[in-house]
Design goal:
83% helix; elongated
Length: 167
């Protein structure tokens, strides 16, 4: 795999987003951090990431033998759960209130479960069974769609409502 392909490898790109989400969770839990700012970044990333996975990656991975189709479909269901938990948190008025903390933990639980499961099943399957060149192509497509989503203010509460309503 060339350095260029490594940069675009869909598995690596997705894993990088997962680590960013975990860091944003830490910030949202920290009373010293800009919790509202971290939520805004997280909201945009979660929606852009999920939409890009579903439109550019999941369908392509289903075409490979030994990548579990049921796990891919389950990943879509888990995106919906995470998006609903995100919307519930976005709809809380007081950042850091008891309700906000409860909804944050619901979100952390839903998304962390998905990240863990996706990494163990879908991404390991992709790493082992999808050729390097194809993973690089999927990574480029994923990044392009994720960027398009981010530019469209995909993390706004209005858009999250639309995404959740349409799922």
């Amino acid at each position: 795999m060339t350095a260029d392909q490594q940069e675009q490898d869909v598995v690596e790109v997705i894993l990088e987003d997962h680590r960013t989400m975990e860091e944003l969770f830490r910030q949202m839990r920290s009373v010293e951090a800009d919790r509202a700012g971290a939520l805004k970044k997280f909201s945009a990333l979660l929606i852009a990431h999920g939409e890009a996975e579903e439109s550019e990656v999941y369908g392509a991975l289903k075409r490979f033998r030994k990548v579990d189709d049921e796990e891919v479909e389950h990943g879509v269901e888990e995106h919906e759960e995470g998006n609903k938990a995100l919307l519930a948190l976005l709809e809380v008025d007081g950042v850091g209130s008891e309700e906000w903390d409860t909804k944050l933990e619901d979100l952390v639980e839903a998304v962390t479960h998905h990240l863990d499961e996706e990494e163990r099943t879908i991404l390991n399957g992709a790493r082992e069974n999808v050729p390097d060149e194809r993973r690089a192509e999927l990574g480029a497509a994923f990044l392009k769609e994720r960027e398009r989503q981010l530019e469209s203010d995909c993390g706004s509460i209005e858009n999250v409502r639309t995404v959740v309503g349409g799922s």
